[in-house]
Amino acid sequence: MKRQIYTEDHDAFRETVRTFLKKEVEPHYEEWEKEGIVSREAWRAAGRQGLLGLAVAEEYGGGGNPDFRYSAVLAEEFTRAGAAGLAIGLHNDIIGPYLTSLATEEQKRRWLPGFCSGEIITAIAMTEPGAGSDLQGIRTSAEDRGDHWVLNGSKTFISNGILADLVVVVAKTTPEGGAHGLSLLVVERGMEGFERGRNLDKIGQKSQDTAELFFNDVRVPKENLLGELNGAFIHLMTNLAQERMGIAVAGIAAAEHLLEITTQYVKEREAFGRPLAKLQHVRFEIAEMATECAVTRTFLDRCIVDHSAGQLDAVHASMAKWWATELQKRVADRCLQLHGGYGYMNEYRVAKAFTDGRIQTIYGGTTEIMKEIIGRSLLG
User: Does the N terminus or the C terminus of the chain have fewer Cβ atoms within 10 A?
Assistant: First the structure.
């Protein structure tokens, strides 16, 4: 079915993204995968190409366009290219809204130009060794010392953790913490007591640096409080819908791409003297996946349009995230199976997609959390 949500401007932007990927990402990606990190030059190149800060006002160096469809194009093309390591979606769509909606004018002038140029790489630090989806369990704390905070604690599984120059840290600013006692503090590279642990060894997305972060009596200036004091819980809930939409968009794009390459593979690969595509079981597998992708795409495109118009609620974002990422997981598994032994070889795209995509049902809120959100909305 022909998609109807994009205009000529979006199509032109898609070509820009594809050109960027071919020139600045694909030639270096294998090296980045081996090193476990992308180059800072790739981030600066993305900034020069206008791919960073799409929704940031032009006066700070951004694109000045809050239309989420441009972010969706980025997510789709980076997914098709298998380039999860360069986490532009995290930078633009997850951390960007915190800076544009919560930062003071002074903070915007201090951080946003570098955010848009690629000189400042960002991360958000919520997850702790003992607190994942449960924000109520956060133990990292900040003590008020008059003109600054003293921050202590640790975080784990932080995407961009090694490269990040600016980290939005969720910390307790009351002894109780919880829904009414958390704040967002911005920790910057070079602050004394801010240390990075190892670059974590993951099963997929090898070039996406994911780290442990440690805060030992870090002096955070009062000017680095982002948003309202003790208001982090509301701030986090407000921005989660967009994070989940970004993950969902990548999920359906991955499923569609895997279906494309597997369809081509079974046409070419022969077994028992004829192409795999001639076997009824294989045709049924392809038919089922194609139908599931088509139905999911229709729902996702509606969610993209609604979110671009500011009309998507948290429940439908949760539905999109749950369904699209679980579909991605199923399709990756079935496509690998159809590739047979070759599907287990890293040189085949399906093998990398299988390991890279497995995190999709976990980060941004697990499938189980998504179901809980949806269930509560229906049953109270």
Answer: C
pLDDT of 132 reads: 74
As to burial, measured by CB atoms within 10 angstroms (0-12 exposed, 13-18 middle, 19+ buried), residue 10 is: middle
CA 138, distance to chain mean position in Å, is 21
Residue 361 has pLDDT above 90, yes or no: yes
CA distance 93 to 89: 5
- The CA-atom distances, in angstroms, between 153 and each of 33, 234, 235, 319 are 30, 22, 21, 33
8 Å CB contact between 97 and 35? no
Distance, CA of 249 to CA of 303 (rounded, Å)? 10
Q: 157-167: per-residue pLDDT in tens? A: 999 999 999 99
- Cβ atoms within 10 Å, residue 184: 24
- Report pTM: 0.95
Burial of 197 (0-12, 13-18, 19+ CB in 10 A): middle
Overall average pLDDT of the 153-157 stretch: 97
Model confidence band, residue 135 (pLDDT cutoffs 50, 70, 90): confident
Q: What mean pLDDT is reported for the chain? A: 96
Gyration radius of the chain over CA positions: 21
Question: What pLDDT band is residue 329 in, cutting at 50, 70 and 90?
Answer: very high
Report strand pairing: 182-188 vs 225-226: antiparallel
CB 264 within 8 A of CB 348: no
Catalytic residues: 243
Give the model's pLDDT for residue 111. 98
Q: Distances from the Cα of 338 to the Cαs of 264, 359, 360, in angstroms?
A: 11, 22, 22
**Residue 22 near residue 82 (C-beta atoms within 8 A):** no
As a whole number of angstroms, the distance between CA 145 and CA 8 comes to 54
Pick the closest to residue 126 from 138, 116, 115 (CA basis).
138
Contact yes or no for 261/81 (Cβ under 8 A): no
What average pLDDT score do residues 346-357 get?
96
Q: How confident is the model at residue 131 (pLDDT cuts 50, 70, 90)?
A: confident
Distance separating alpha carbons of residues 28 and 153, to the nearest angstrom: 35
Tell me how far apart the 2 most distant CA atoms of the chain are, in Å.
79
Helices (H), 81-204: 88-89, 96-102, 105-117
Angle 8-20/68-80 helices, nearest 10 degrees? 40
